[in-house]
Amino acid sequence: MKLLDHLNIKKVHVVAVSAGGPSGICFASKYSERVESLILQSAVTKQWLTAKDI
């Protein structure tokens, strides 16, 4: 957010792909007033690796 503020960017379009899906969702929910749109492509939306898998 500091970078967006420094660059004087008021709103952004967030694109989250694959394992970046949760980060995009988190960003959009935390800073909803700054997100113009959220685009998810093949996004992982639930935990897909557990301690059992490692």
TrEMBL record:
Pfam family, one: Abhydrolase_1
Domain of life: Bacteria
GO terms for MF: hydrolase activity
Span of domain AB hydrolase-1: 3-48
Keyword field contains Chaperone: no
Transmembrane feature ranges: none
Keywords per UniProt: Hydrolase
Protein's name in the database: 2-hydroxy-6-oxononadienedioate/2-hydroxy-6-oxononatrienedioate hydrolase
Organism: Bacillus licheniformis
Lineage: Bacteria, Bacillati, Bacillota, Bacilli, Bacillales
